[in-house]
Amino acid sequence: MTKILVYDESDNRMMTLNREESSPMPYSYERTLLVREFRGSSRSSLLYTTTRAMEAWNATRRTYGSAIPVGYAFKRIWEGGHGQQSQHYAGVSFDVGQRLSQAQRNRIHQVATDLGVWGYVEPLSMTPTWVHFDRRYGRGACNPGSGYPLLRMGDTSTYVIILQDALNALGYSTKYLDGIFGTHTRDALISYQRNNSLSADGIAGCNTWRKLVSMVVGIGRTPTVID
C-alpha cells in the first residue's frame, strides 16, 4: 500500500489517500495512469501530486485517445535524476512517449500544447525522444516562469513538501512531511538559513532555494528523511 498526498489547489487543502501499486492514481481517468507508472523508478514509500496535474493528464489522455506510456514522473528531491528545482520533485511533471514513434510523440505534444491545461510543454527540439509536460503552479521565486515559488508560514502545497523533504534530508527536522508550512517547518528553515549564511527570516525565497537544492538534489536517502 502506498501513501499518496494530493494537493487540491481549488480549496487549498492536502488530502491523504492510500492506493495499491496496481491501482489508478487518485483523480486520474479510469486506468490510464497507475500508481506504479506514476512512481516510475522512485523507491519512496510516499508519493504526492495535485488534482490539477491529474486533471491535465485526464484531458490529454482523453483527447489523444490511446495509451500514453510514462517514462518518468515522480521523484523525491534527494533521489535526484532531474535538474535542480525540477517539477518532477513537485509531483506534477511527466516525461512520456519514449517507446512511441516520432509521429506519435509529435501528436501527443500537439494535443498537450493545444489543450492549454499544462503550465509548460517543453519544445520538441529539447526532448528528441520523449514529450515533457508539467502542471507547475505559483510564481518562481527566482524566475516567475520557472522554479519553485516563495514559501512562508501558512502556505500549503507540494512545494512545501519539497522544502520539508530537503530540510529533513539535511538534518533539520520539520517533524512532519505534510505539505503544510507550520511552526516546525519555519524553525527548521531558520536553523538551516543561520547555518548557511542566509537571511534567517524563515521564508524560502530565491537565495534559500538555490542553496538548498544545490545541497540536497541526488544525495540519496539519509537517516533523517521522513515519510
Describe the structure.
The protein is an alpha+beta fold. The chain folds into two domains: 133 residues, Muramoyl-pentapeptide Carboxypeptidase, domain 2; 89 residues, PGBD-like superfamily/PGBD (Muramoyl-pentapeptide Carboxypeptidase, domain 1, Orthogonal Bundle), CATH 1.10.101.10. It is 30% helix and 14% strand. It is built from six helices and seven strands. It has a four-stranded antiparallel sheet with strand order 4-5-7-6. A three-stranded mixed sheet has the order 2-1-3. It starts with a strand and ends in an 11-residue tail after the last helix.
Described by strand count, sense and barrel closure, the largest sheet is:
4 strands, antiparallel
The third-level CATH topology of the largest domain is Muramoyl-pentapeptide Carboxypeptidase, domain 2
Corresponding CATH architecture of the largest domain: 2-Layer Sandwich
Return the string of H and E elements. EEHEHEEHEEHHH
Mean pLDDT: 97
- The oligomeric state is single chain
Annotation, overall tally of beta strands:
7
Structural class: alpha+beta
Number of H/I helices: 6
Strand proportion, as a percent range, falls in 5-15%
Judging from the principal axes of the Cα atoms, what is the shape?
globular
Distance between the termini: 13 Å
Instruction: Indicate the percent of residues in helices.
Output: 25-40%
CATH class of the largest domain: Alpha Beta
- The poorly predicted ranges are none
As laid out across the biggest beta sheet, the strand order is: 4-5-7-6
Count of individual domains = 2
Rg measurement, Å = 17 Å
